[in-house]
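Quick start: what a row looks like.
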Amino acid sequence: MGIFEREWTLNFTQCYPNGQLKYSELNNILQITGSDHSESLGFGYKKMIAVDQSWVLSRMLIEIDALPKYTQTIKVRTWLQDFTGTRAIRNFELLLDDQVLITASSLWVVFNIKSRRADIFALSTDHMEFYRDRTATKKPVDKIDGNVEFNLMTEYKVKLSDLDIVYHANNVKYMEWCFDAMDPKTILDGSMKRLEMNFLKELNYGDEVSIQQFNDETYCIQKDGKTHFLMQIKK
């Protein structure tokens, strides 16, 4: 199953008051679809946890033409573009009535849950199918320049509800914390056309972090002066 598809009917918890799909829920839907694909290929959570490994998201780029809305049924299509043994590139398309509204590219790293470090993939890759010439986004997923003068927006303490099954803050939460610190008007106008994220270090229960911004475009999450997350927004 080289190219995987899943349909989603958007419910009210996934949408903003204006009826549009939340950016964080968009990110979540893409990743869950990718996870379902991995499970179907035999290297999802259950198989990998047996060898003390997990996939962690390193970078994500989302390009948006339009956001789908409450009650609409969308289709998410995903495929693996490449794999190096420690890293995989996974691409996405989100469609409404066969029209592509959103594309995304993501970089995933094999993570050892005991050492808490990157690892060599321990499972067989013989059955993997890659589409090395099939890109999704206009630009490749890339590194964000975090060497800028950030200003403090707010502070936050990681809660139990932020944790996922591998006992660290789920990466979608990083995005949510930044959006919650912004002026709602800048989110609800639906003008964001590109979201780029770098996930640099994990965060755990009780960690105290600062949410910071630069020029209403670049956002970061820091702990003890070290950057754990960067996000860049283009309108």
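That is the whole record. The mean pLDDT is 94. Helices lie at 23-41, 45-49, 171-180, 184-188.
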